[in-house]
Amino acid sequence: MKYIEQDIKMYIQEKEYIDTAIIPLVPYAIHDDQEMVLTSFQQELMNLYSHQLEQRLKGRIFLFPVYTYLKNSLIDNEIERINHVIQEVKKQPFNEVFLLTFDKQWRKQSSSIEGELVWLPAIKSGNLQSNEVREVIRSQIIDIEELIKESWS
Amino acid sequence: MSNKKNNQVSRRQFLNYTLTGVGGFMGAALIAPMVGFAVDPLLKGEKSGDFVYVLDVDEITETPQKVSFQVDQTDGWYESKVEKNAFVFYDSNGDILALSPVCTHLGCTVDWATEKEDEFFCPCHDGRYNAEGENIAGTPPTEPLHEYTFKVEEGKLYLSPETHARGGA
Known about the structure:
The structure holds 2 protein chains of 2 kinds. Chain A is built from 4 helices and 5 strands.
């Protein structure tokens, strides 16, 4: 399910079946040109990953709107905000909350986050249409899918 | 003079008629393309007639094979390429069947023979379908897997991007 009207209406009726939340954590940069290039590419990549994942497991996962923050802001300050989001999400209720990110900064803090952090190694910039890149992405998506399915069993 | 006036169009009337006429044409020329653009997505309609080649008929077996193909999808203004998947196989009557992998419960993607050898299985809520794609009673799905319209030409199988529910299953 996605955060669009059509899916939300279905979600409200079928809440008992949709128990897993996905929140992509996506940084963006303004302070540095190089960082802008990097984060924008990762943003595109995350969009691809999360939508593919949503498509494959549509009936049980809920893809929330992207959680964004400035790349050069202190990650410690983000912990409180993301935990607040997670608490609200769990009230719905959602049993599992997965946070997807390419940003390494979160890893050090993973113990203080109230959701399941899934850090993915990002491929370097490249053509998202090329077959090799697609193959890499496909296998990574299958890995995440397995991880999510494990939490269900 | 008065007789003449009855039969003839006066200068004033003539100008009125011609200006209205010409003005009308000019207005139409301006507005028609605008209306055209405004309803453009409606005029194009669904491109359901576009069949896409997926595989040769002699490659089809009795075991479902997963094939993927790309179609252009238009959501109003937004056009994008979308990858679609299908399970293609011969059913027990020897007819070709091209099933959509979208679970009829809540739309997850089902897989063939992951849980049981000859069943389709949905990982989300353990939905099961038999080898013909019919939902197994007691599992969440309420109807059989949907089917793609297909056509065979010169030994090649083409699928339409549209799927439909299967009757009488």
